[in-house]
Design brief:
Blueprint (H helix, E strand, L loop, with lengths): L9 H10 L6 E2 H7 L5 H13 L3 E3 L7 H5 L2 E4 L4 H8 L15
Antiparallel strand pairs: 1-3, 2-3
Helix pairs in contact: 1-2
Amino acid sequence: MGGSNINLDGSETTIIKGIGLMGAEVDGMTLFTNCKGMDANDFISTLKGLIDTGLIDADNSSFYSLEEVAKLTFRVNPGYAKEIKEAIDPSPEPVKSKRVRRE
């Protein structure tokens, strides 16, 4: 297994965890509430970046305020869910056995 090609910073990880990786949709105000400690400008900027890279799907990618975000729903793109999960919580590579079966 190769490593994930997705690198997330703290703000991106917070937003993705706020949405969840189970494929459910989350409305914008709930998402902002789940992202404790983020100010509105950082939240909107990071969310737009995640949408632009395709990691998050939204009803509309054109929003500029929390009032506009509140009207939208968001979800993690299911095509990237496995890679995102690996980027958030990387599991160690399984150790290969040095034992060899001989016939």
